[in-house]
Design brief:
By secondary structure, the protein is α/β, with parallel strands linked by helices. It has one domain: Aldolase class I (TIM Barrel, Alpha-Beta Barrel), CATH 3.20.20.70. The chain contains 14 helices and 8 strands. α5 packs antiparallel against α6. Bound molecules: iron/sulfur cluster. Iron/sulfur cluster binds next to loops.
Length: about 350
Amino acid sequence: MHWLIRPDAVTAFSDRGVRRALSGYIEVAEDRREANFRVARMVAVEDELGEMQVEELWRLHSELMQRYRRLRKSPEGGEAPERSLLHLKHAIALKMLERCEFCERRCRCNRRRGELGFCGTGAEARLSSEFIHMGEEACMVPSHTIFFTGCNFYCVYCQNWTISRQVEKGTPVTGGMLAEMVERRRLGDKSRNVNLVGGDPTPSMHVALEMLCHLRVNIPVVWNSNMYMSEKGMSLLEGAVDVYLADFKYGSDECALELSRAERYFEVVTRNLLAARVQGAELLIRHLVLPGHVDCCTKRVLEWVAENLGNSARLNIMPQYRPEFEAYRHRGLTRRVSKAEMREAMDYARELGLWNLEGW
Ligand code: SF4
């Protein structure tokens, strides 16, 4: 049935570019290899986590991540232990909630006591919706997409502003509840992945990690994000995420500050893209072309990708900008992207040698 709606999804896994950038993802989606979280689950934790200070938890995390990296290269069979590296990651995330630094904003508020940071997300994660998304990139669909409310950005043109800004409208959800949904979608609807998004999934990282502690099916975990995680946030995601569906928006910090209220944007996002590579996760980069931002943003994003990730990096250069939310207050953002701007963006990508472009 899904295949009738998106026939391009049927052949997506044989596409040369998809295979080049996302071979690990394909193997997990086809159940020929274990997802990263299933490898992390094999790393046993003997210590009583509830009694440990956060520094001790981080020390143990660094130690056990060595074991995870070894296991990832040469997997061993056997029974999963009762308590694993995933439980440790979840325990650290819960401690971090008391002084939240999941993302680079580092609000350091105590979300467990009801304080709210920039994202407005409290101690609970809230679900806006979950469904089989057929509108994602062909290799991703059918994608079990989980929309959390709340976002650590404030994009003036946000197309999901009812999700990102109206946090309280979501329904509180636990990791156990999410795991059940993922299992049902994987077994019943043959979802290719679980796609964690929002808003942004970063403020709900603790519940995403809790979900992985409960999850009993093998499935690729896709982190669909603005990539503004802190370094600690990125550390927790290593061994949890298989693919970063990374939204690389701006080439200019001034544009990021003006349009998303994000400081040091370029430094933070590029740092995290490189960290994702080091983690051994795979990348599918999205770049939404904004009207009037081809020179300052699109070209610099493409140049950085070509120089740092290589010309085979999988890129989705997206033309679908439309003025939404508060875009009408910003001169230049009240129109769609012109054909000439899209052509310029695509020509520039090709000039740089970037060939692995989604849908072109
Ligand atoms: S997730 Fe980011 S924006 Fe939200 S409270 Fe934590 S540090 Fe602040």
